[in-house]
Give the backbone structure.
Amino acid sequence: MTSKEILAELKTMGSESVKKIFLRHGAKEPFYGVKVGDMKKIVKKVKMNHALALELFDSGISDAMYLAGLIADDKKMTKKDLNNWVKKANWYMLSEFTVPWVAAGSPFGHELALEWIASKDEKIASSGWVTYSCLFPLKPDAELDLKEIKSLVDRIQKDIHKAPNRVKYTMNNFVISVGGYLPSLSDYAIAAAKKIGKVEINLGDTSCQVPFAPDYIEKMKQRGMLGKKRKTVKC
């Protein structure tokens, strides 16, 4: 399939009801309102196709941009590609899912995570926190800088309540990811999360709730997910 054919198929898959849901979550036009499950029907057809992924992301149509992340070959992404993607990601389904998933699987995940975290742009900074979080289930603990991760948890404990809205959300999830995926730092993350307390975040006109980090980490333990590694974070 060509990118033009995929865009045409995505258009037929869109629905007004899904568009309304996405709009409440902050989606930006243009987009069709395609369910992720329906996008995966296209993924089965094209499989991994890096050139096609780059074309789809550059279309500027949110559904196609999300699909691009699912078919991208992360290992082939350049820093230029990833910086282009993070700048074009105009709402959190892209900035906190698509871009971090691909960045974390690329050769530049750690490097760009730190660069993006330091950004004053809310969407880019949130991408940075999620990208770093995605490294925990993807990489062996021996390849992670645990000292640096502890310092980031300390930084979150100090700064989270005065951070921009979506940065607060991704910082909170970072602490959860540390506690859930890194057994040696689980108690450290829980202690920090308890000191942080409840995090107030505006999630718009949605029924979504902000997870309380200590409880969420405990649930991960109960489900046998503590320290469990994954081949991919994409879904």
The chain has a mean pLDDT of 96. The chain has 13 helices and no strands. The radius of gyration is 18 Å. The longest helix spans residues 122-138.
